[in-house]
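My current task is to audit a protein record that another person submitted. I need someone to confirm that the token line plausibly describes how this chain folds. Take the sequence as given and treat only the tokens as open to question. This is what I was given:
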Amino acid sequence: MPSPELSPALARAEALIRSIPDYPQPGILFRDITPLLADAEALRATVEAIIEPFAGKFDYIAGLEARGFLIASAAALSAGVGLIPIRKAGKLPRPAASVDYALEYGTATIEMHDDIPAGSRVLLIDDVLATGGTLAAGRQLIERLGSHVAGISVLFEIDGLGGRELIGDLHTVFHS
């Protein structure tokens, strides 16, 4: 059911997100955003909402692999800024800084190149805030490489997993 405070376009976009129980493991509720991505109007409204609170406050957008790439790419294009991919370990073609982090169902490592000038303002985007481990690692990478996280924005947050406590202030488009 759409959040009551959303515009009609965002309420429609939120209604396109499917919940898939027990994926990728039992007990995990996966949010399938592919129907939202396939709908140009819904994608446009979502991208505008994810960057709007930070307008004029960032020089780059960083997206976390994998679904964060999809939203961040569209957001970077819409905002007229460059995209910084934050990848899973071993996916970048040259040396990169890395951070290990915990997921709600395991551990992982992410990496990022140092292609942006030190002091850059970066908006960090992902699809979902769960435990906060991936976003915290992304923030750590950006800061380790000398840039500033201008904000963190996600499509939605899974309550009760401690992500908000770990990340702190962030913008959430959908309130499920």
Remarks:
- The domain at 53-172 is CATH 3.40.50.2020 (Rossmann fold).
- Helices lie at 8-15, 34-37, 40-51, 67-79, 133-144, 163-167.
- The longest helix spans residues 67-79.
- Residues 40 and 78 are 13 Å apart (CA to CA).
